[in-house]
Structures are given as structure tokens and as C-alpha cells.
Amino acid sequence: AEKKYLSSLRGISRVFPGEVQKNRNEQECADLNVRNRPWFVSAISGPKNVVVIVDVSGSMWYTDIPQSASNNPGFLCNFQGPAEAIDRNTTSFPAECWTYPNRLTLLQPAITTLLESISANDNVGVLLFWHEVSLLGFDRLVQGTPENI
User: Fold this and answer.
1) What is the pLDDT of residues 51-69, one digit of tens each?
2) Distances (CA, A) of 75 to 63, 78, 81
3) For residues 143 and 123, is the Cβ–Cβ distance under 8 A?
4) How far apart are CA 133 and CA 55, in angstroms?
5) CA–CA distance from 49 to each of 5, 45, 135 (Å)?
6) Closest CA relative to residue 97, chosen from 107, 110, 112, 87
7) Helix, strand, coil tally for the chain in percent (to 5)
8) Rounded (5°) CA angle 13-18-22
9) Model pTM above 0.70
10) What is the mean pLDDT of residues 82-96?
11) Residue 36 CB: number of other CB atoms within 10 A?
12) Most buried of 69, 84, 90, 96 (most Cβ within 10 A)?
């Protein structure tokens, strides 16, 4: 028989016909929360147009060093470009600059989470700005399919 699903905004979910469930720990139960499932998010939110604007300017390449990790309180490492393009052997930044993530690295999980929430019902576009604005991938909003994201 085909399964039917009923879910509420409070996270209550039922499946028909029912089946015996195994005992789950707290994390497994949290992972099953239907409010985090793409099909549920898509169903309750409706289609949307999303433009993600990402600052890739020089300030995003700063590395904030915790005061407890540096002799210089408030010290910032300013790479002014992708860290992989900088030769660690010839750059005179202290070791802490290579230990702590820069601001852009810290932003990436948030961008990833946002893009993972996009469904095929949505349209999405990504803009990068530094000295000028550039479009990432497409010159317009595109359907939020896995191939486009």
C-alpha cells in the first residue's frame, strides 16, 4: 500500500499505514524532525526568489585572532586574497594567521545551509562583490535544482 504522510508545523508527524519503530536516541529523533525535511520546507514556504550577495572584498580575508592566542590584542591577518594563493614560507604573518579561519571561511557554512534550503520551486542567483559585482554561474535567477546549485 502507498504510504501517506501527515505533518504539522509543531513537528508532529504520522505515517499511514503505521509501522513498528526502533528505539532511537535523542539525536536520531532530532534528525527525523519533519520540519527540517526539504519536502516539508518547500510545502510550507511556497516558491521564492532568492539572491545571495556574498562579500568577497579584502575585509573578508581578515583572520580574527582571539586575544588569548596572540601577544598582540586585536591582531588581524590581512591576506588580501585567497589563502591558498599565499606562500606560507615567504609571507611574514605570525603562525596564528594560518591557524584560525578567515571571515569568508566562517561565512561558507551559512551560505551552504541557505543554498541547501532552496528547492526546485525556488529561483536563485548568487552575486559576488569586491571592487565590482559579478554573477556566479548564471546571468539571471535560475530554478533551484541540484544541477544549478
Assistant:
1) 999 988 877 777 666 555 5
2) 9, 10, 18
3) yes
4) 9
5) 28, 12, 15
6) 87
7) 30, 25, 45
8) 85
9) no
10) 51
11) 12
12) 96
Say which DSSP state 22 is in. P
Of all helices (H) and strands (E), which one includes residue 128? strand 123-129
Residue 146: all three cell numbers together: 541540484
Phi, psi of 55 (to 5 degrees): -80, 115
Looking at the chain, how many residues does it have?
A: 149
Q: What are phi and psi of 39, to 5 degrees?
A: -65, -35
Distance separating alpha carbons of residues 149 and 42, to the nearest angstrom = 16
First-to-final CA distance of the chain: 35
Cell numbers at 69, concatenated: 592566542
**Is the distance from CB of 114 to CB of 139 less than 8 angstroms?**
no
Q: Return the exposure string of 83-109: e unless at least 16 CB atoms fall within 10 Å of the residue's CB, then b.
A: beebeeeeeeeeebbeeeebebeeeee
